[in-house]
Amino acid sequence: MFGITGRKGRVGGFISEQTRFVAAGALVTDMAVHFQWGRGSSLVWVTRLADAKPVAGAKIAITDSCTGRLFWQGATDASGRAAVKDVLPPPTSYGNCQYGTDRPLMISARTADDYSFALSTWGNGIQGSDFSMPEGWGFDRTAIHTVFDRTLLR
């Protein structure tokens, strides 16, 4: 993990009279950490970014990303997987550190020469809300459709 500070007179397309400092973080790694959070058990698997091959023997730690509380630790097997028994809190995709008890998990993987991590909230991808589709607590699972027949069209 590297901390980067950039100095520019032009920020966001605007030229400024003052020099601006912009801080950012960059994780330079050759490992990808994948996480499937389940109710009875969960799965962590680690692959190399260079060739997508599994990473055997990576040390895995699953923690509360807000408090650092350790829930589970272990290592990946020869196929790059680590099975996690029922020791994690119930799965959630909306947790944060400010409100409630549903907090994101941090899943970290470490080898002798590399480190990477993932957060449980990073799995959002393309969501229904991107297309104004209802989702969340108020979603009604009722499906309604029309059956057309020739007799209806006469």
Describe the structure.
This protein is mainly beta. Helices cover 3% and strands 41% of the residues. It contains 1 helix and 9 strands, in the order E-E-E-E-E-E-E-E-E-H. The strands form 3 sheets. A 4-stranded antiparallel β-sheet has the order 6-5-8-9, with no helix packed on it. The protein starts with a strand and ends with a helix. The model has no long low-confidence stretch (mean pLDDT 78).
Secondary structure blueprint with pairings:
Layout: E1 2-11, E2 14-26, E3 31-36, E4 42-48, E5 59-64, E6 70-75, E7 81-84, E8 105-110, E9 115-119, H1 150-153
Antiparallel strand pairs: 1-2, 3-4, 4-7, 5-6, 5-8, 8-9
Q: Roughly how much helix do the residues carry, as a percent range?
A: under 10%
Report the structural category.
mainly beta
Provide the gyration radius in Å: 22 Å
Strand content: 35-45%
H/E topology pattern: EEEEEEEEEH
Task: Tell me the distance between the termini.
Answer: 70 Å
Overall mean confidence score, pLDDT: 78
Order of strands side by side in the largest beta sheet? Answer: 6-5-8-9
Number of strands: 9
Q: Can you count the helices?
A: 1
Q: Low-confidence parts, pLDDT < 50 over ≥5 residues? A: none
- How can the largest sheet be summarized? 4 strands, antiparallel
Q: In one word, what is the shape?
A: extended
